[in-house]
Amino acid sequence: MKPRPCGCKGCRTCLICEKFYGAENLKLSLKLDKNKGYVYCPFCNKAWPGWEIDAYKQHPNHSGKPINYPGIYIKPDFITASEEEELIKCIDQVPWDISQSGRRKQNFGPKTNFKKKKIVPGNFEGFPEFSKFLQDRFKSIDLLRDYQVIEQCSLEYDPSKGASIDPHIDDCWIWGERIVTINCLSDSVLTMTIFKGETKKYNLYCADEYYPVVQQDGSIDLEFINKDKTMLEICKPNEEIDAIIRIPLIRRSIIVMYGESRYHWEHCILREDITSRRVCIAYREFTPPYLTNGLHHEIGNEITTRAKKFWDHRSKYKNKDEVIDT
């Protein structure tokens, strides 16, 4: 199905195609019971009853009975205000591509085909130099020890376009356990709903072949010692949770999603939760088959080698006067 001029296709829509291209009746309608909402607090690592995201700021004076929600790590103020300003300035000097649901994107990574499970380096030659300090800073977080970035993607959410992203789980054939996002320009919310579909979707069944990097106590096991159970078994919720979890995407924070929240919950960003321009930088790592000694380590090693390179964006786009502001 061909995308509409705005970039949307199928049930994915934005305010532009809903108004000008007859897509109003195509958009996905999410029926979320706000009475089932819980707001995750990054300071006590529990989810408390409520819907409005500012509820986490009540810490430690929360109200109601909390629930445990594993698989989320948030570090506020991962970058400073001046670092954010310079980062966004450089990001906006790189060409944006249109994406679905009112978003724009800049993608740096190998070429992947999730349906055929094929990956090639393509024209991937690493990442823009201005973002290197972010990857370097990952080392300051125990949870990201030895995290090797394979894909870096900048995403823009614009409220004037009705930007959002539908509920989904990031592909599990190629992208590994830890999903990392740095949030810039404004606060927003990641809305989590438990996934009850077939494991064929999102290539989720592939996770049965992996062992967890992040252990239940939050420690890192890079040797995959815990081989008596599969990833999906270890990360499965202890009991069925009838709740919607609201994760605060705090401006200038970093969030790491792993384990249960990574594999058993779909995540989305609702249109109503984009109130001003938001830009995030998302990161992915390889699954075990593409790491050293893995079944596909040869192509994995080639891509990993390229992923360690950084280049100057001004030189790369020097002929694009409409992009580079000198």
Automatic annotation (TrEMBL):
Entry keyword set: Dioxygenase, Oxidoreductase
Keyword Glycoprotein assigned: no
GO MF term (any one): dioxygenase activity
Swiss-Prot/TrEMBL cofactor(s): Fe(2+)
InterPro entries reported in the protein's UniProt record: AlkB-like_sf, ALKBH4
Listed GO biological process terms: demethylation
Superkingdom, natural source: Eukaryota
PANTHER family reported for this sequence: ALPHA-KETOGLUTARATE-DEPENDENT DIOXYGENASE ALKB HOMOLOG 4, OXYGENASE-RELATED
Identification of the protein by name: Putative alpha-ketoglutarate-dependent dioxygenase ABH4
